[in-house]
Design brief:
Elements: E1 3-9, H1 16-29, E2 35-38, E3 53-59, H2 62-70, H3 72-82, E4 87-93, H4 102-116
Antiparallel strand pairs: 1-3, 1-4, 2-3
Helix pairs in contact: 1-3
Length: about 120
Amino acid sequence: MTAYAIAHLLSGEQHPEVAEYIERVQGTMKPFGGRFLVHNAQHETVEGVWNGDVVMIGFPDMEAARAWYASDAYREILPLRTDHLGGNVILVPGVPEGYDAAPAAAKLRAALAAESS
């Protein structure tokens, strides 16, 4: 099942090392089947506060996403970004084709009913 690496990068110091990171990061993703889904795009905040930028990378599955993030190639370049830009990064599995949220709602309703009993 498809997995995603999602980064919320906060504004920070523009630095030549950040440019080097951007130049090199795609090469670290390719061996793991990763590809940019969102990068260097303007976003529209419709709820809450979202200062900074969003980056989203798709991978074939969670194992590939984890292997990329832990890879020597990525770990080598990671400080080029983190030394100058703060942020949050998550790895998250996608949902299968045809996913229906109704069972999740039913489970929540059952848990709420059990709490109020």
